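Backbone-to-sequence.
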């Protein structure tokens, strides 16, 4: 059994639900120290961050996370006991993102590249305030970053990410007057007031996207009204909305348009992440060259998917790009990784370290 597969299995066995690293760093740190990396911990509140470096900088920082989302129901086996079936390694975190972590750690132990570091956090799946975002402010000499999120879609190496969409969230509360359903003239139904607002928001075209970003999308994720009794007119109604936005629709633009459509309502806004696009410099070029050399594919650029810790580097003006394997049932039951992708992923990371 390969060393990268062994390491992945050891990491999956750690029940590292955010913000608990649950022993992952105890597995990783000795491996890196044996490869002459200096390992330090940058901890804040309940979050642990591991920083392992070699050389004096400026550093290429390899960034990832060991925390996972809760397992949830529907698993065919223990989510924290790695199971091999049909060419897959099944377990919570197998693809998001312990496979990438195992491959990067293995590649670093094989690499002779200096001025390189590995920054791992246990707070990526949560708010992220105590994880990478905080840790990079405590590290001197970060020059560029490779984030090892899963980016491939159908086959290893088909996509990488030089940027990401942003995330904007709002809770809208629509006021009304509670009353008896038999006397609507004495009340004001907040749901009836909400309906045309929601209809207009759903019909709004926020932007068309561009060559790097898909159009901004809007999704309702929460709807609340009523007191649970069929004879009571709701006195208020609340709705939660999230946008995944391109640079063509800024936080301020989305806020202004939404508040105009839903005038008279109450709003609680969260500017979760700003969209960004890194220049096609050393990291992106290294990813493309390494992937093509190992797989024969020239990876296409994508900014789709969710948010990632790459945004923390971009916010500091640090060149950053992302590359990782194909996720299988990511965040779902029986999350998995293709075992045959592990060794090629190690090789790709090794070449990226040399080229980026």
């Amino acid at each position: 059994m390969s060393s990268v597969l062994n390491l992945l299995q050891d990491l999956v066995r750690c029940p590292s639900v955010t913000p608990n690293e649950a022993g992952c760093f105890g597995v990783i740190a000795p491996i890196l120290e044996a490869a002459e990396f200096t390992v330090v911990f940058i901890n804040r509140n309940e979050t642990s961050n591991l920083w392992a470096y070699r050389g004096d900088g400026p550093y290429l920082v390899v960034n990832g996370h060991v925390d996972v989302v809760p397992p949830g129901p529907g698993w065919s086996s223990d989510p924290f006991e790695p199971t091999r079936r049909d060419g897959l390694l099944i377990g919570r975190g197998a693809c998001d993102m312990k496979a990438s972590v195992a491959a990067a750690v293995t590649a670093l132990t094989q690499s002779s590249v200096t001025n390189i570091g590995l920054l791992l956090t246990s707070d990526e799946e949560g708010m992220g305030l105590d994880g990478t975002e905080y840790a990079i402010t405590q590290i001197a000499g970060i020059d560029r970053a490779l984030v090892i999120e899963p980016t491939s879609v159908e086959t290893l190496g088909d996509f990488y990410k030089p940027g990401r969409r942003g995330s904007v969230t709002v809770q809208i509360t629509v006021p009304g007057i509670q009353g008896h359903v038999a006397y609507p003239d004495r009340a004001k139904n907040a749901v009836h007031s909400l309906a045309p607002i929601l209809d207009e928001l759903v019909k709004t075209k926020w932007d068309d996207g561009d060559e790097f970003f898909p159009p901004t999308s809007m999704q309702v994720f929460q709807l609340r009204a009523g007191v649970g009794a069929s004879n009571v007119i709701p006195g208020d109604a609340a709705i939660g909305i999230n946008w995944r936005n391109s640079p063509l629709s800024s936080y301020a633009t989305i806020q202004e348009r939404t508040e105009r459509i839903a005038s008279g309502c109450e709003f609680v806004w969260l500017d979760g992440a700003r969209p960004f696009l890194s220049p096609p410099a050393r990291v992106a070029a290294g990813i493309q060259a390494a992937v093509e050399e190992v797989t024969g594919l020239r990876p296409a650029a994508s900014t789709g998917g969710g948010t990632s810790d790459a945004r923390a580097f971009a916010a500091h003006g640090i060149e950053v790009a992302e590359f990782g394997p194909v996720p299988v049932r990511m965040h779902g039951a029986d999350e998995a990784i293709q075992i045959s992708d592990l060794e090629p992923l190690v090789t790709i990371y090794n070449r990226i370290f040399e080229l980026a």
